[in-house]
Write a structure and sequence with these properties.
homodimer; 229 residues; Arc Repressor Mutant, subunit A; five-stranded parallel β-sheet; 8 helices; DNA-binding; transport (chains A, B); two-component regulatory system (chains A, B)
Chain lengths: 229, 229
DNA sequence: AGTGATCGTCACAAACTTGTCATAAATTCA
DNA sequence: TGAATTTATGACAAGTTTGTGACGATCACT
């Protein structure tokens, strides 16, 4: 899955390096700059998923960067987390009013910053924050009712969607036809076991893609499983 | 304009009263309860726009309330701000991981809480904060009650307007007819599910534009969603 | 009271899904 | 190899879900 891209605007080299390291460990793609103007340039070109912005930076001030990010259409809706020195409550209020989404006062723990950034990412980009399931090259966003394979959106019927969802929630495991009927159709359904075969075929057809292998594995005399391909 | 509705779960009467007063002055509709179970009950019935939740409360604990709010479909996406005692960083991490959106440690200034709540409201319910929402080529200015698409002003009936507003506040997500009835018509409305179809058609008709695709997606056996086109 | 807009419901048409079957293909094992 | 078992596939009719036009009721405003 695509990494969320972070722009870190921080002119304390030690802190910048520490945060860069920690965020990279959390699977973020981090870009660092100490300079406000450079930050604006990069932000409008590359549209990061989130900006972490120190209030006191060289060149254009933090609040001015914040304001300009909001004014530029390309970055108007990118979440911003601001960092400032302790005790500057007025700064905080102004920051939030200028359009920042969150605010931390130094010194803060990297864990806290990471937790806050993750909370924002979860809300803004659910697909990037684990509200979607990924198995191999398949990605399912159950909320949006969308399935993607290698970037292409797949069209599945309702039953195939539920079937795939169940498989993706238990990747690699083999399920008998009876188990699949119980899980996907409901315990009280009165349906031929063989019908599962048909829906497996429909699922295979629905997720097939030029040059991509079939992730649905038939286990003879046992059932079916979804493999991470 | 409708006031944003806040649910404040706080068992310190002095703090609760202070916050209630301050938020009312900021034009929020505030409901206060010291009890976790009562909070859950009210939240699932009335679906507040945001929940402020003290970690240490009587009855069900704060984190448990948070978890249950997330689990209940009706409240799964309501933002939560948690309050806790100073120095409990682990609590903070757990809170944010459980699904809270923001976190403050006591003592905090009411101004700070208000600023943070406003920042969240601005992001997730722009319409309530007096800003305009944009989804794809659609723009809605809820205050002026105007919708534009690629520059043209659209004429929508009241219900279609509310329906579109709800969709635009949750772009991409699929909602069942029942959910749409609850959200747009009100929880206590006693209306045929199929009536939603009719209003979806009226909405589609209202926003259709020469050469522009239909952003309303039908998800068979699930409901409807608004796509960013 | 009169006008026009909006609302909820219905009935029917259109579009799509679904479960089953018959048959073909694949696999197992003696 | 050949028979037996198991799975894959195409077709189809029944069933379900959604789209649409029409209609009377209601409401706001004149």
């Amino acid at each position: 899955m695509k990494q969320p891209r972070l722009l870190l605007v921080e002119d304390d080299p030690a802190l910048a390096e520490l945060l860069e390291f920690r965020f990279k460990a959390e699977n973020y793609d981090v870009r660092v700059t100490p300079d406000g103007d450079e930050a604006l340039l990069w932000a409008s070109e590359e549209a990061p998923d989130l900006v972490i912005l120190d209030w006191m930076i060289e060149g254009t001030s933090g609040i001015e960067v914040c304001r300009r990010l909001r004014r530029d259409k390309a970055t108007a809706h990118v979440p911003i987390v601001m960092l400032t020195a302790r005790g500057a409550e007025d700064d905080m209020i102004r920051g939030l009013e200028t359009g920042a989404d969150d605010y931390l006062t130094k010194p803060f723990s990297p864990r806290e910053l990471i937790a806050r950034v993750s909370a924002i990412m979860r809300r803004i980009r659910p697909a990037l924050a684990g509200e979607s399931i990924t198995v191999g090259d398949l990605t399912m966003d159950a909320t949006a009712h969308k399935v993607t394979r290698r970037g292409s959106i797949l069209a599945l019927g309702p039953t195939e969607f539920r079937l795939l969802k169940f498989f993706m929630e238990h990747p690699g495991r083999v399920f008998s036809r009876g188990q699949l009927l119980d899980a996907v159709w409901g315990t009280d359904s009165d349906i031929e076991l063989r019908t599962v075969d048909v829906h497996i075929r429909r699922l295979r057809k629905g997720i097939e893609l030029e040059g991509a292998p079939d992730p649905v594995r038939t286990v003879r005399s046992a059932g079916y499983a979804l493999e991470a391909v």
